[in-house]
Amino acid sequence: MASNMRGLTQFIADIRGARVRELEEKRINKEMANIRKKFKDGNLDGYQKKKYVAKIIFTYILGYKVDIGHLEAVNLISSSKYSEKQIGYLAVTLLMHENSDFLRLVVNSIRKDLDENNEVHNCLALHAIANVGSSEMAEALAEDVHRLLISPTSMTFVKKKAALTLLRIYRKRPEVIPAAEWALRLVSVMDDQDLGVVLCVTSLIMALAQDHPDAYAVCYTKAVDRLHRIVIEHEYSGIYTYYKVPAPWLQVKLLRLLQYYPPTEDTTLKNALNETLHTIMTSSAEPSRNVQHNNAQNAVLFEAISLAIHLDTRSPLVDTAAVLLARFISSKETNVRYLGLDTMAHLAARSDTLEPLKKHQGTIILSLRDKDISVRRRALDLLYSMCDVDNSELIVGELLRYLKVADYVLREEMVLKIAILTEKYASSYKWYVDTILQLISAAGDHVGEEVWYRVVQIVTNTEDLQEYAARVVFEYLKTPSAHESLVKVGGYILGEYGHLIANEPGYSPIEQFQVLHSKSQFCVAPTRSLLLSTYIKWVNVFPEIKPQLINIFERYRHVLDAELQQRACEYYALACLPDDNEMLQNVCEEMPPFPPRVSGLTSRLNRKMADTEDKRTWIHGGREMNLEQQQMTTLMRSKQAELPVNESASGSADSTMLNSLAGLNLTLPSEAGESGAVPRLTVGPSIDKWYKKLTYSTEGVLYEDVQIQIGIKSRFQGYLGQLAIYFGNKVSAPLTSFTSTVYVSDSEAISATFAKIPANVLAPRTQSQQLLQVECKKVFTSHPILTVSFLAGAHQSISIRLPITVTKFFEGVKFGQADFFERWKLIGGSPRESQTVFPIALDAAGHIDLPHNRRIVSGNHFEILEGIDPNPNNIVGAAVLHTSVDGKVGCLLRLEPNREAKLCRLTVRSTSEEVAAEVQKLVEAALRTE
């Protein structure tokens, strides 16, 4: 660049040739004065502007303040020449910050460059947005960046930059990104052939999925499929192999993404994931001599172990992981020890049993004295997570010993963790008091208010503990260097319960007073206020030291602190009351027990350890803490889902306007049906006709348009079923990013899973088949919905009901006339009977279409019983519903058509009210349509 501009080359040479800073500053000031004059005179061509702005950029890079050239940089961006545009963008990203007024002038130029069919200009514009993108720029250009990312004509390097730019925009202004609306289209980019594009878009989806897990649930299948193809099928380009590890960064991100979702119930996905994780752990079992290979391999391995723990702590994979982790925490490499301890803490936080970890307790305790502070911190977290009733005294004792020599940055966190463990796993109240007082004595300034508040609460609420606590705290106060937190605890406990030990030798009222008051001169005003409250309590229970106490109140009546002075005056007045006055006794009654409350220590610790970027899917602590955290997260998500969609916080004017439009649905329909919401069904003239025919047929067309045809073949036996779904590509171009998912609203009643992960490309004019395994667990009324999405120029999404009805799991039953009517009467009428009368069409000859009626009844898996009804036009059927959970449900049917009235009466009786109503609805719908 400089070689093409001789003036810039000479300027750089002069600066480098300056021997002292004064000469450098003199040369720069001279050049800046010249540039300022040139800009003021105007009439500069593009080359001159580029040269002078380049000199300004070089000056800025050297660390000098620059206050000129901003407008010229904006003008250079609109130039058609690449070299001028490049300098303009470079100046904008370096000289301007996101709140600069000049940025408003470049928004239109950036949009023009994004819209151009020029990849280089696209990239320059994306760089500018990502580096200095202001809130206004994010709002104005988010749609354009999204268009570049999803455009089939965009080059791979443009897509990569667009994905990362969108990520920057989302982190800056999440509200300008319609995350749910773009979900399916963004997830489809995960099927791109270039792993670099997949890596960048996975980074974007990780951020979006953390805040919108339901909308991006479809990425789970994509992530499992991509991992399986990389690890098992070795489907990757050689350029993405890093020291023989295939695409390690992509593997890490995909494994992390899967941890944002609960373990899948889909057998196919579960098996593919287990195979992938097993392969990763097996191939990484033995370390290599190459450091770079080890680093990449370990990055993937530790994330795979974390995912295995997240999926199921009882699986064989976790047993293998525990063996590997035991080796890692003893490694010579600091990074490996750190990751081993951190991952082991994850295992301890999720595992049902801690026995495998307790085998390595000694090694973990030794890690507290590691030379690296980050390793020491992870060892502390692990000990905190693996503590239980059996080893609590050992771990707490070890932590207390280490506390005395621990780094100052660790002490506050250690105090909180020791206090939580002591309270949670206390074998006796005496051990709790001894440990907490030892903690307060040792930790000093690192003990927060919450710790001694909790001690006071527990002692007050536990009557058997009060005398012991008073005795122990008195002994601690005798030490020369009792910390102020200990004085607070002592002041409260001795004030309330000092009378319980006053008759014992060495604990007389005067001795208690002397020990406690000797500490007051080193305390701050709030602590002295507490001690004054202790003294007034003693006035009531220890009349023998009343003169000394009144003397204290008298002295404190004249201090400058308002709080202390007020307390002293009030307490002095109380202490001087006559002995027969009961006011003092009433005021100084013993404190009642505190109401039960949750300890605030855990919440404070979680706030202290909160993550800033990728959200952890677990917290340090035992299994119970993590279960509570999951329940709270689920509750918060459900509450957020209940918030009004059109809620506005922009002011009363906006609220008034929205209220006036109440009742209108102002939300844009989202392509991406969230897993927590029913997908929006595709409508068409023939879709209902195809669907209803398949409710009583085993095969046929489910959906067809100019691009794709979807056909069904099904078979059912008992409570199990299998659907062969055929996808036919009718066009001469491939359907890419092909995704098929099944939505089941009631997973406890019915399950539907694909036998294998579908291929993501449907070749031109070919057909592919997917097998869907179905199981009926209970009676169900809502049918599974098949959602198919693909790219064919634009993104297409189709959602249609699958013909999986409750009658598909029927099995016909033969009855004689007597048996049938006996069961018919036994079931009885309403509510286990469902009856309806509806119009029917006659055949061409004007007769009842009996073969058609019989075909519908038998197609719903009823056994047609002959000779039951004397009218030959009537149809009687019997069947049994098979379910895997609720067992069998009987069902009887009677169809009575009337030729003259062109009406039909349908009566269904079943031992289940739901079955009777559902069967009546299905059979009536089939008879009405024809």
Task: Describe the structure in your own words.
Helix 6 packs antiparallel against helix 7 (119-132), helix 17 runs parallel beside helix 20 (373-385) and helix 26 (484-497) runs antiparallel to helix 27. This protein has 38 helices and 16 strands. Strand 14 (875-883) and strand 15 form a beta hairpin. The termini are far apart. The protein is of the alpha+beta class and 930 residues long. Mean pLDDT is 84; it is low at 641-675.
**How big is the Rg?**
38 Å
Please give the share of residues in helix.
40-55%
- Categorize the overall geometry: extended
Per DSSP E runs of 2 or more residues, the count of β-strands stands at 16
Discrete helix count? 38
Poorly predicted runs are 641-675
Oligomer class: single chain
Distance between the termini: 77 Å
Structural class: alpha+beta
What's the pLDDT, averaged over the residues? 84
Layout: helices, strands, pairs:
Blueprint: H1 6-17, H2 21-41, H3 46-61, H4 70-77, H5 82-95, H6 103-115, H7 119-132, H8 135-150, H9 156-172, H10 179-188, H11 195-211, H12 219-231, E1 241-242, E2 245-246, H13 248-258, H14 267-283, H15 291-311, H16 316-328, H17 334-350, H18 355-358, H19 361-366, H20 373-385, H21 392-403, H22 408-424, H23 429-443, H24 449-461, H25 463-477, H26 484-497, H27 509-520, H28 525-541, H29 546-556, H30 562-575, H31 583-587, H32 601-608, H33 623-641, H34 652-660, H35 687-694, E3 699-704, E4 708-717, E5 720-729, E6 736-743, E7 750-754, E8 767-776, E9 785-792, E10 794-801, E11 810-812, H36 817-827, E12 833-839, H37 850-859, E13 863-864, E14 875-883, E15 887-898, E16 903-910, H38 913-929
Antiparallel strand pairs: 1-2, 3-4, 4-5, 5-8, 6-9, 7-8, 9-10, 11-14, 12-16, 13-14, 14-15, 15-16
Helix pairs in contact: 1-2, 1-3, 2-3, 3-5, 4-5, 5-7, 6-7, 6-8, 7-9, 8-9, 9-11, 11-13, 12-13, 12-14, 13-15, 14-15, 15-17, 16-17, 17-20, 21-22, 21-23, 22-23, 22-32, 23-25, 24-26, 25-26, 26-27, 26-28, 27-28, 28-29, 28-30, 29-30
